[in-house]
Amino acid sequence: MSANVLEIEGLTKRFGAFVAVAGVDLGIRRGSIHALIGPNGAGKTTCFNLLTKFLTPTSGIIRFNGRDITALDPASIARTGLVRSFQISAVFNSMTSLENVMLALQRKRGESYDFWTRKSTLSGNRAQAMDHLHSVGIAHLAETEASDLSYGHRRALEIATTLALEPEVILLDEPTAGMGIEDVDRITRLIHDAAQGRTVLMVEHNLGIVSEICDEVTVLARGRILAQGDYASIAANEEVVEAYLGGGHA
How far apart are CA 142 and CA 236, in angstroms? Predict the structure, then answer.
């Protein structure tokens, strides 16, 4: 089995004459937490959109567990075990926390969410859903509608629904954006815990979080890889410092 669970070769995206991502080659090591950072406009979110096929690459190859998934649609990619969270809210406001996770569990099993499902199945889903809520620290909010959750608790619920899909790789797009210090600390711990036995690829503005939990960091600038390595080597790289000073923190 390859050390890399996700591999990208020559990934390119053009919008007319503008090249948003230019020939990116990247390997994501199995079981790691890997951060994608860079100045504003560096192409980070575009890369995420390409990996999950919300955008179609102009050229390049995406491999997941050695399989070429470049031509797959977003739903098919999610079914392979490559799941993206935090881009758009993954929860339903009118449903409780528990119902949201139960729905994710039933989606994973190919079931519909309704009250005609066998009682034994519903009971099993409920118990497992409660386990997921407990794992992210919001079991006490199981009967609370998502619309009534605080921002940080809503993010925790999104992690729970993502984990219910049993992903092998989780892609997190700016998971702590807009959070206060307390919520940032909570979500950082949840990301670290969620990564146990999985691979996490994340775009994150907060470099303190990147330095704390990420094994590998890739820096993008103008759609190309500027540097890659552990956080200490990235922080000491003069080109990276120059890119941030010139473009603002990602």
Answer: 45
